Amino acid sequence: MASFPKSITSQLSRHSRRQFLRGLGAGIALPALASLESLKVLAADSTALGSLAETVSGAPLRTAFLYFPNGSIPSAWWPDQQGAEYKLSRSLEPLTKLRDSVQILGGLDHVNAEAGPDGAGDHARGNGTFLTGMRLNKSATDIRAGISIDQLLAREVGHLTRFSSLELSCDPARRTGSCDSGYSCAYQFNLSWSSPTTPKSAESNPRLLFERLFGAGKPGERVASLQRRRHEQRSILDYVLQDARSMQRKLAVRDREKMEQYLTGVREIESRIEKVERLGDAHELSVETPLGIPDDYEEYIAMMYELMVLAFQTDSTRVATLLLAHDGSNRSFNQIGISEGHHDLSHHMNKEDRVQKVAEIDLWYVRQFAKFLNRLREVEDVDGSPLLDNSMIVYGSGNADGNRHTHSNLPILLAGGGGGSLTPGRYIDHESRPACNLFLSLADRLGIQGLDRFGDSTGRLANL
Q1: pLDDT digits (tens, 9 = 90+) for 81-136
Q2: Which of 390, 319, 309, 386 has the alpha carbon at shortest distance from 14?
Q3: Residue 208 banded pLDDT, cuts 50, 70, 90
Q4: DSSP string across 116-169
Q5: What is the DSSP letter of 194?
Q6: At what angle do helices 206-214 and 222-248 cross, to 10 degrees?
Q7: How many percent of the chain have pLDDT more than 90?
Q8: pLDDT tens digits, residue range 431-444?
Q9: Per-residue b/e over 51-86, b at no fewer than 16 CB within 10 Å?
């Protein structure tokens, strides 16, 4: 199954924001759509419309960060001129029909991914620095990076949706062990970090992700399944809290402190349940649940992209990350006639046949990305515009030239219209600016106030 049926689109909202607000005011019954429920909450306070995490039209503004491994072939990636009249390069050719929805961002760097005194380990640094902008502590056990931009955004806007953020991966999660020249595997297999010492483990199984979003069981059973599970969770929590409070009175001071830490965690779970109840149930989809992880990599990526589309379409979340493969991945691409490993080929030593094979892999990844953008463009948002217009999608790698392990002039694309706040359809060379400047500018468009610095930022990225 390469993707879910497009008929799903017809099941979801085609009401414009104006129609929705008119219906809300007149007391007209509307379908129980998660995307409309979030607008309904905000509509209770008319001053909130058009503010945090929304576009001017009132539609949700979605943000995603997508990572492909091992950098790119620069000569095949970058166009030959700046501005709107650029000619698409070989690697970006699949974006031909989407060029008006994509910006090519040149000149963005991650200097904290450079070797410095730390020596080897560019794959771990490229991966771990991509969304944090911080220099990693080189250790297999003493893990220290930084909060990632997606989690910072989720802290501010995550209360508006059932899931504050979604972390997806096409690699199995790894948080322990040594992977790249003494760096922890946590750096190389996780994009998202909730704190400098805590990576957010990504879900790599499409079935588990689908059930988390929409419930287990067959179509027509999933909402009831979610409600039943939530009721069971609440019953267990009530029992635990009652028993713990009774025990707490009998404990010594130090043990009371430990118990209070435990109860804080329980209360956080309780708060998440209350949040889900407040925002309403998941939308019931008449699509079969995925069977699991496909053997075919292209089908696997298509499925994860489609789940992200569904999550945005139903307003289940507004912030997501997807690790297409960890940096240093040595996957072969037999489906396009390349039997050698990607990482091995990326050290091409300027041998033309190997350079061409890496360029073909870059092209293949962009082709899958283009399919994802097309799906976002096909789906109609709550304000009647394409979902892509109300999105900010960052696609890139933490390595620039995989042969030399450089981290300057990273291959980064920015897709979507940002609800009218972005100017796609161009190639702009930003002339050696921290990639974190881009992240600050995206946070501004989400209405987040008071964020003066992130990672190694030096200011906002102008001309977006």
Answers
A1: 999 999 999 999 999 999 999 999 999 999 999 999 999 999 999 999 999 999 99
A2: 386
A3: confident
A4: GGG-S-HHHHHHHHTTT-SPPP--SSS------HHHHHHHHHGGGSSSS-EEEE
A5: E
A6: 80
A7: 63
A8: 999 999 999 999 99
A9: eebbbebbbbbbbbbbbbbbbbbbebbbbeeeeeeb
Alpha-carbon torsion (29, 60, 222, 299), positive or negative: positive
DSSP of 285-304: --SPPP-S--SSHHHHHHHH
Phi, psi of 459 (to 5 degrees): 155, -170
Distances (CA, A) of 363 to 77, 78, 175: 9, 12, 30
Given CATH 3.30.70, say whether it is the number of domain 8-214+287-445: no
Q: What is the pTM of this model?
A: 0.79
Per domain, the residue ranges of the chain are: 8-214+287-445, 216-281
Is residue 264 pLDDT above 80, yes or no? no
Count how many Cα atoms sit within 13 Å of the Cα of residue 19 in the half-sphere of its side chain: 12
Query: Amino acid identity of 238?
Result: D
pLDDT band at 260 (very low <50, low <70, confident <90, very high): low
Tokens describing residue 259: 């118990």
User: Distance between CA 305 and CA 394 in Å, rounded?
Assistant: 14
Report the C-alpha gap between 435 and 410 in whole angstroms: 8
pLDDT over 60 at 237, yes or no: no
Q: How far is CA 458 from CA 177, 210, 299, 371, in A?
A: 34, 39, 40, 34
Residues 6+ apart with CB under 8 A from 222: 211, 214, 215, 216, 282, 284, 285
Structure tokens at 453: 């610095």
E strand intervals along 140-257: 166-169, 178-180, 183-184, 193-195, 198-199
* Count of residues in the chain: 464
Lowest mean pLDDT among 4-18, 108-122, 211-225, 226-240: 4-18
Rg of the chain on CA atoms, in Å:
23
